[in-house]
Specification:
Two copies of one chain form a homodimer.
Chain A: H1 9-18, E1 28-29, H2 32-38, E2 41-46, H3 56-66, H4 69-72, E3 76-79, H5 83-94, E4 99-104, H6 109-117, E5 121-125, H7 129-143, E6 146-147, H8 154-169, E7 176-180, H9 185-197, E8 202-208, H10 213-220, H11 242-251, E9 254-258, H12 260-274, H13 284-291, H14 293-296, E10 300-305
Parallel strand pairs in A: 2-10, 3-4, 3-6, 4-5, 7-8, 7-10, 8-9
Antiparallel strand pairs in A: 1-2
Helix pairs in contact in A: 1-8, 3-5, 3-8, 5-6, 8-9, 9-11, 12-13
């Protein structure tokens, strides 16, 4: 596993090559209609088109492929109710090793089905963090599998950094680049990629008001874990990881929050004007831009559309 | 206005140049997940990303830009409750002439708003064909505007042909190319483009069972107008046009129908697996492929995703 200081421009470019067979180089899209509303030039990086429907495919693939043969052989494990579970199951399946996924019994059927489709083995547990951690310990002890956490992990962060790397490799010049922040894997990776490939680009984290531990931690200069989380952006309800906090403190320019109402309005614009299916978490950066139009006026603004795994029966409009 | 025999490979390529400033060269997308389900190699032409959210932008732009100055000056007119209304209003606005749109009072607010946003002037009428035609006659008499019909018109068909032209220009080799059929503008244009640029490609029309006049006309060798139409594919509830029928009879290989249940299942796959917002009409060709898997087994199959203008509050899932 990488240590701090070992991620640099060279290692991010290497990570992109390492995962090339496992992920898409996702397209960039623009919308003149949304530009007009926002008053700036928006460039959207479409990770909703990524394998498993979210950027998580990158970090999971990078972490799994980097494992030495001696560690790979017993498989990988994680606890997750979301996109990381499917991403890890898929990455493991691609290189022919087992994936053991501890999921809360309350996880949506669609998420469980996705993990099973990629050949992951599900272990259901009670829907508490304690039960998940116990479940994971038991799986790791039983099978000797390597735990790959969803965000608080150097190789996962290095993998997520390949997303912004692709933007900069496309010779796109950005004043600002926004990514949503939950555990901080994508935001930390994005900030590192900008630091090494486009230091003039300011990276901003976008967070729901109802789960604003990243903003509070960022302002306080120390991690303040979430006491409770309440937002429609169900991919962002986790506390910032430790490594993630260190990187974000150093390399992120700001973290801005928005209400669920603003998230839903931005999500609706993406559906109506861009014809893209995105999950609520994915709409948080656009909501931040629309709430702070004056700040972004006339700028070249990149937005990472993080994923498109949404329950169609529960769209908020 | 073009006459039969005047559309050829040269004129379609010219039309593409003529409308270049007004439309997108839309992307092609693939989905390994849907390929696995369908048992063939699908290539989707994403007209849901087109200006005004549908292929209709092409035909309207081509017809409007081709008008000589003497005819342009009093503007253009049509009656439509759908995408053609917005497309015509936008094309007219782009070249700075007025557009008069006769719309049934029952048309959805979103459609009216789209026409207004593009600067079109709306004349509401009772929701009958007779009232629409009377409204149109009155607008044409009052303003001296030129009537641009939605599909039964050579320049409109030539414009729609530029969509399949773009596929063949991308050096994509197809065994089959499917397009939905309502009035027949897109299907006729697609068939002409294949005839001139890829004669080995079989063009198939895809139609809802509840509005199957195109299939019945195709089999009978004469136009059989719809007596009644009932399908979720609200863009396809019109009878085949006259010119459209002539072209389709000559150059289309087959017309296949599907049920609304099959349309909804295909639409759901496009949302879930491709992360694309499409309207029900747009899912009809994929539904045809999934209903007739044996026929398409192992082939290279092109599908035109015709549009993405859907009422998000009324998604059928």
């Amino acid at each position: 596993m990488k240590q701090e200081g070992e991620i640099d421009s060279h290692s991010i470019a290497e990570a992109r090559e390492r995962i090339d067979a496992f992920v898409h180089w996702t397209p960039l899209m623009r919308s003149s209609a949304i530009n007009k509303i926002a008053g700036c030039e928006l460039i959207f990086k479409c990770e909703n088109f990524q394998k498993v429907g979210a950027f998580k495919a990158r970090g999971a693939a990078n972490a799994v492929v980097k494992l030495p043969a001696s560690q790979r052989k017993n498989g990988v494990a994680t606890h997750s109710s979301g996109n990381h579970a499917a991403a890890l199951a898929r990455a493991a399946s691609e290189i022919g090793i087992p994936a053991y996924i501890v999921m809360p019994s309350s996880a949506p059927e669609t998420k469980k089905r996705a993990v099973k489709e990629y050949g992951g083995q599900i272990f259901e547990c009670a829907p508490t963090l304690q039960a998940r951690e116990e479940g994971l310990r038991s799986v790791v002890a039983t099978y000797g599998a390597v735990f790959i956490p969803p965000y608080d992990h150097w190789d996962v962060i290095e993998g997520q950094a390949t997303c912004a790397f692709e933007i900069f490799e496309s010779s796109i010049s950005l004043d600002v680049l926004l990514a949503p922040v939950g555990g901080g894997g994508l935001l930390a990776g994005t900030a590192l990629a900008a630091h090494f490939f486009s230091p003039e680009t300011k990276v901003i984290g976008a967070e729901p008001e109802g789960a604003d531990d990243a903003r509070r931690s960022f302002l306080a200069g120390k991690r303040i874990p979430l006491q409770q989380a309440n937002s429609i952006a169900d991919g962002l309800l986790t506390s910032l990881g430790e490594i993630n906090f260190e990187i974000i403190s150093k390399h992120v320019g700001d973290i801005l929050t928005v209400s669920d109402k603003e998230i839903i309005a931005a999500m609706r614009l993406i559906y109506e004007r861009m014809k893209l299916v995105v999950e609520p978490s994915c709409a948080v950066p656009l909501a931040v831009v629309l709430r702070n139009k004056a700040q972004f006026q006339g700028q070249q603004v990149g937005i990472i559309l993080s994923g498109g795994n949404v329950d169609l029966a529960r769209l908020p409009f």
